Automatic annotation (TrEMBL):
Its main location: membrane. It comes from Chryseobacterium camelliae. Residues 46-151 form the TonB-dependent receptor plug domain. Pfam families: Plug, TonB_dep_Rec_b-barrel. The keyword Transport applies. Residues 247-673 form the TonB-dependent receptor-like beta-barrel domain. Keywords: Cell outer membrane, Membrane, Receptor, Signal, TonB box, Transmembrane, Transmembrane beta strand, Transport. Coiled coil: none annotated. This is TonB-dependent receptor plug domain-containing protein. It comes from the Bacteria. Belongs to the TonB-dependent receptor family. SUPFAM superfamilies: Porins. It is a multi-pass membrane protein.
Length: 712
């Protein structure tokens, strides 16, 4: 119903809004700028960090619906989807989502597991994104805890050059071969409306709404209506249905040296879980029916964000961010009568995660009247109040809820020295204090050398910490069969990274633009937290700082552009070494290597302005040591074996055609052209909501889409 109502609202806007000029983001940019890791916004070529940028035009050409789909095209970023929970996290440099900091406009996003880490990227829609900036490597000095593998900074639209801007977008997709506009359980249906109004030269207001209705994918199952025969368990969905509504509203004031920006974001999401096990329910008089214990999951998230940029006195720049964020996750059990297609009863909603965060970050710079030396002094604080219901842990956590408050505060200092016209140096240090953990120090040294007018060399060293999560600190599962306890004495993990990046840019006499780049990175994470056996008889397990992780990365990229044609391609080879430990057994720490490659190509026909866009990514076969347990782990610790994760190829193709002076556009295409769905994975095992053992649900196969855009 929400899908149809939003479609009617969106289409109605076509009638009452007069045609206006296009959004300024569709205009050709003079120079691409970045903010991640910078003192102030500046050109990407002048950035002291190696920043990878995915701009609004690229996102539009991909025909994606959320940030997870965008980032999946990037080398050395693997989006790890969970077909059961519906969440998708970013794995960078081989490390999972706990080690990546996800920001929106420089502010970390609240999640179930913390602040900025393990953020579900499918909960970030793309219709109001200006660009996405990615920095790989440890960024602890600038962005604090959990920025071990890198930072993903999502920059939203704030400015419009025209008086009024409006865009309506409708996108219909198949889910594999499943699609139906009316029938429940078929396809994906996306509607969005973006509005921007420049009140005056100083004031701008924006608002947008996005509805993403993913009706799930049955896969090897037969849907929620299916009545199991005998002992088969074929009812349900391989990918759970997810209905998501995201809204944003913002106001911006800019005059002289001062700008103020306030934004509010609201997300509501519902996920439907259909049990594949049915129960026999006698009705009397020889009649019976079959019921399922189904469950709905609900998420509500509020993000309040305020940013001020101004000058203190005549010189000092101040950039301050303030944010209050909440996320509440609820579940609701109900009994469904499968043959009669009706609910028999529904329990009240139960809150199983609740996070409330106040966050602030401030930076002062430009203290000295010097073109050669500048330094930045900053602070960061977050106050997180978290609640985890007993049901979030295995065996109901022995019926105990967990409610804790953690306060973290940090000061950081860095200085940038322009030694001469070619060489710049920036050292930095951060001191972080916490009411839960010991004080943490992070360091960084970044250097940039212009080897010529066309090329530059960047050298980056940094460190960062990963703080333990709730499960690692507070899990308590003790019964006749288990003794698994969290460890409140865990210390944060420590990561170090070093990188070398070379870029070469040139333009030929024929207006061909070339960019060639090479990079090498090294990452070392010590004191990794792992569940280990701390006592054999009786068997007891806990969490300890015991594992180590190393990765080496070599890569190169080539970009070429002329007129209506552009091509970007890259290749990388990464080696991963892990020292795993069960408490009684240690794995080999040999390096295991795998390759990745990607390609993006766009071509626009001169006369018709028809755009053809192709995006391809290859992820090679990965090998990784994994623990193979024994029947009696208290006596036999088992062994470490080399598991494999199957390689795969992904390709998307889009054709779009504008009409009416670019006000109206139709796009159509194919996603996942190679029809990838489940891949072989002997490193992890399946569970109740994912694929069978030794398999991993990665995608749901090839799908087709049609998108309609109207720019007023």
């Amino acid at each position: 119903m929400k899908k149809k109502m939003l479609s009617i609202v969106s289409l109605s806007a076509l009638v009452w809004v007069n045609a206006q000029e296009k959004d300024s983001l569709n205009q050709k940019k003079i120079e691409e700028v970045v903010v991640t890791g910078q003192y102030t916004q500046q050109s990407i070529n002048k950035s002291i960090y190696k920043v990878e940028v995915i701009n609004a035009e690229q996102i539009k050409n991909m025909a994606v619906t959320n940030a997870a789909e965008v980032l999946n095209q990037n080398l050395n970023i693997l989006i790890e989807p969970n077909s059961g929970s519906g969440d998708s996290n970013a794995s960078i440099l081989g490390l999972s989502g706990e080690y990546t900091k996800v920001l929106i406009d420089n502010i970390p996003v609240v999640s179930d597991k913390g602040m900025g880490n393990l953020v579900d990227l499918t909960k970030i829609n793309v219709n109001n994104i200006e660009r996405i900036e990615v920095v790989k490597g440890s960024m602890g000095v600038e962005y604090g805890n959990n920025a071990v593998a890198g930072v993903i900074n999502i920059i939203t639209k704030k400015n419009y050059s025209k008086k009024f801007n409006a865009q309506v977008s409708l996108q219909e997709e198949t889910v594999n071969k499943d699609y139906d506009w009316f029938k429940k359980g078929e396809g994906r249906h996306v509607q969005s409306l973006n509005l921007g109004y420049r009140i005056s030269d100083y004031w701008t207001v924006t608002a947008d709404i996005n509805h993403n209705d993913f009706q799930g994918y049955k896969g090897k199952y037969n849907g929620y209506k299916y009545l199991n025969k005998g002992d088969e368990k074929l009812r349900g969905n391989e990918w759970l249905p997810k209905d998501q509504l995201i809204t944003n509203a913002a106001v911006r004031y800019a005059k002289g040296n001062t700008s103020l920006f306030y934004k509010i974001n609201f997300l509501t999401e519902t996920i439907n879980f259909y049990n594949n096990t049915l129960k026999d329910l006698p009705l009397g008089d020889g009649n019976r029916t079959y019921t399922a214990n189904d469950k709905d999951y609900f998420t509500q998230r509020w993000l309040h964000q305020f940013n001020i940029q101004t000058k203190i006195g005549s010189r000092i720049n101040y950039n301050g961010d303030f944010s209050y964020q909440t996320q509440k996750r609820k579940s609701q059990d109900y009994i469904y009568d499968v043959p009669n297609r009706q609910e028999l009863s529904r329990a009240s909603k139960n809150t199983f995660y609740d996070s409330k965060v106040f966050y602030s970050r401030g930076m002062f710079s430009n203290f000295l009247n010097s073109d050669k030396i500048n330094f930045q002094l900053g602070y960061e604080l977050d106050h997180t109040k978290g609640f985890a219901d007993a049901s979030t842990f295995e065996s109901n956590n022995n019926g105990k809820n967990i409610e804790r408050t953690i306060f973290n505060y940090a000061n950081f200092l860095s200085a940038e020295w322009k030694v001469d016209e070619k060489f710049s140096l920036r050292p930095g240090i951060r001191l972080a204090v916490s009411d839960k953990f010991d004080s943490q120090y992070n360091y960084s040294v970044t250097a940039k050398y212009n080897t010529s007018q066309q090329s530059d060399l960047r050298m980056v060293f940094g460190s960062a910490n990963r703080f333990p999560m709730y499960e690692e600190l507070y899990t308590f599962v003790v019964d006749n069969n288990h003794d698994i306890r969290g460890n409140e004495n865990l210390k944060p993990e420590t990561g170090y990274s070093a990188g070398l990046f070379w870029d070469y840019n040139t333009m030929s006499s024929g207006a061909w633009k070339f960019n060639l780049s090479f990079s090498g990175m090294y990452l070392d994470v010590k004191d990794r937290i792992e569940s280990v056996i701390v006592q054999n008889q009786p068997l007891k397990m806990s969490y300890l700082n015991i594992d180590n992780y190393k990765s080496i990365l070599f890569g190169g990229g080539f970009n070429i552009k002329k007129g209506n044609f552009s091509l970007n391609t890259g290749v990388s080879v990464m080696g991963i070494s892990q020292s795993l430990n069960t408490g009684n057994l240690t794995s080999s720490d040999d390096y295991n290597y795998y390759a990745e490659a990607n390609l993006g190509a766009n071509y626009t026909l001169d006369k018709t302005r028809t755009l053809f866009a192709l995006y391809y990514k290859y992820t090679g076969k990965r090998k990784q040591y994994t623990h193979q347990g024994s029947i009696n782990p208290g006596v036999d610790p088992g062994e470490y074996v080399l598991g494999e994760i199957e390689g795969f190829n992904m390709m998307n193709f889009t054709v779009s055609q504008p009409f009416f002076n670019n006000h109206f556009e139709i796009a159509a295409g194919v996603k996942n052209l190679f029809d990838v769905s489940t891949i072989r994975n002997t490193v992890i095992s399946g569970d109740a909501h994912t694929a069978a053992t030794n398999n991993q649900n990665l995608f749901y196969g090839r799908s087709y889409f049609v998108r309609l855009n109207y720019n007023f």
